[in-house]
């Protein structure tokens, strides 16, 4: 069996057109203008009656999707990957069941993995293809794989949403989860543009210990030139060629 | 003209609605006791109806049959809902 699919160099180059992120843990730090840090982002474009059911993470994703103008590009797929979904909600419901209490229908309704994209789709009247993924720590890799599928199928560009969320204390030994929620969005395509950054992948023998789970803070640091980016499946070292961020806000 | 001031019980029920449905930026006094809670008026939806059923049970010990036609009547307005609470509360 030929296992060298990552050697397909044509597909190992992607173009990053825009990115933005929500990193509440970086509040007060010097960050590029495209990184917001408010604890509870406004999500002003989401009607209040829908917005009330969103967690800060959901509000952040809707705020950033609005800023990226996804709804102005009809047909651009929106792909969301997160390892633990929207934080405590699904796990808290298990506790409620254990205590024999009835579940909150509203919370139940928004504990599904694609809930945030669903609210976004309703609020912005965006009927493009949307998908929500979980991949046991390889969410970014899964997003790239899914994105390539859409791009190879002829989509001009795709919008990726990567989010991460803490889990309740008692689950922290079982799984790797961050202390703070975070989100990062990027639009990718196969074609260069004057202001696009070329993302070049280089095959490496094994990702090994160098490969950390790719989270929004790690991607942000990489885009700011502060660290390397290595994906695990397939094992690739990524290089960003071009200006990846505007001058940090004053 | 309709009386839009809230009785003590109506205020209590209004606060239950606001709390259970996580209504942002709304206070009890913003809710017109005669206005529709669903659709036009306050603008609640079907998930809110289920959530309200749960809140009534927790707060006032009132169990509603989820299929009952009369629920529509009880949930019509804050005033109607407060009348139901006054009649059937067992807390």
TrEMBL record, chain A:
Superkingdom per UniProt: Bacteria
Domain Beta-ketoacyl synthase-like N-terminal per the UniProt entry, residue ranges: 34-202
Matching InterPro entries: Ketoacyl_synth_N
A Pfam family this chain is assigned to: Ketoacyl-synt_2
Name this polypeptide is given: Beta-ketoacyl synthase-like N-terminal domain-containing protein
TrEMBL record, chain B:
Pfam families, per database record: PP-binding
Alphabetized SUPFAM superfamilies for the sequence: ACP-like (SSF47336)
Domain Carrier positions: 4-89
InterPro entries xref list: ACP-like_sf (IPR036736), PP-bd_ACP (IPR009081)
The protein's name in its UniProt record: Acyl carrier protein
Organism lineage: Bacteria, Pseudomonadati, Pseudomonadota, Gammaproteobacteria, Oceanospirillales
């Amino acid at each position: 069996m030929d296992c060298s699919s990552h050697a397909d160099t044509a597909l190992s180059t992607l173009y990053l057109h825009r990115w933005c992120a929500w990193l509440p843990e970086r509040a007060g730090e010097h960050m590029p203008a495209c990184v917001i840090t408010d604890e509870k982002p406004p999500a002003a474009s989401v009607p209040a009656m829908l917005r009330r059911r969103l967690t800060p993470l959901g509000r952040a994703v809707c705020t950033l999707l609005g800023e990226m103008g996804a709804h102005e590009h009809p047909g651009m797929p929106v792909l969301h990957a997160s390892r633990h979904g929207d934080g405590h909600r699904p796990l808290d419901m298990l506790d409620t069941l254990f205590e024999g209490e009835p579940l909150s229908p509203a919370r139940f309704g928004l504990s599904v993995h694609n809930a945030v994209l669903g609210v976004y789709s309703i609020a912005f009247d965006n009927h493009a293809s949307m998908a929500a993924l979980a991949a046991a720590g390889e969410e970014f890799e899964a997003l790239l794989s899914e994105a390539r599928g859409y791009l190879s199928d002829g989509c001009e560009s795709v919008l990726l949403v990567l989010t991460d969320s803490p889990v309740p204390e008692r689950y922290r030994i079982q799984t790797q989860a961050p202390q703070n929620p975070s989100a990062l969005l990027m639009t990718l395509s196969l074609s260069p543009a004057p202001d696009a950054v070329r993302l070049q992948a280089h095959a490496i023998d094994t990702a090994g210990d160098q490969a950390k789970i790719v989270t929004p803070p790690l991607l942000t640091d990489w885009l700011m030139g502060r660290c390397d980016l290595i994906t695990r499946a397939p094992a690739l070292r990524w290089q960003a060629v071009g200006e990846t961020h505007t001058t940090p806000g004053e | 003209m309709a009386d839009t001031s809230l009785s003590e019980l109506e205020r209590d029920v209004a606060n239950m609605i606001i709390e259970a449905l996580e209504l942002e930026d709304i206070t009890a006094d913003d809710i017109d006791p005669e206005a529709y809670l669903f659709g036009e008026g306050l603008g609640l939806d079907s998930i809110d109806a289920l959530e309200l059923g749960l809140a009534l049970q927790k707060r006032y010990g009132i169990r509603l049959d989820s299929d009952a036609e009369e629920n529509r009547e009880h949930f019509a307005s804050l005033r109607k809902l407060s009348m139901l609470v006054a009649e059937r509360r067992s807390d």
